[in-house]
Amino acid sequence: MTWISTRQQDRDHNGQRNDCGACGHEGTAEDPLVLTDTGSRVHNSHITDPGSGLYGARQTNP
Questions:
Q1: CA distance 10 to 15
Q2: What is the phi/psi pair of residue 35, to 5°?
Q3: Bias category Polar residues: which stretches (predicted)?
């Protein structure tokens, strides 16, 4: 089960569902948005980049 934070839900309802919560750019096929462990949508590259403050923060489903 995925979890989406209240803040991300607000962003979704305000037309920002495909905008990265970290950098503001749109998700793309090459760099899609994924959910973090805090329930925000960010680019997959933020999660996989060791230099990013979001490295490894991908939400996992039990």
A1: 9
A2: -90, 135
A3: 37-47
Q: Which of 22, 43, 20 is nearest to 32 (CA)?
A: 43
> What does the block give as tokens for 57?
């923060």
Q: Which residue has the tokens 């329930």?
A: 39
| Owner of token pair 């749109």 | 26
CB atoms within 10 A of CB 59: 17
Q: Name which of 37, 28, 31 is nearest 55 in CA terms.
A: 37
The token pair that represents 36 in the structure block: 């973090």
Q: Tell me the two tokens of residue 44.
A: 């997959």
Structure tokens given for 10 = 């607000």
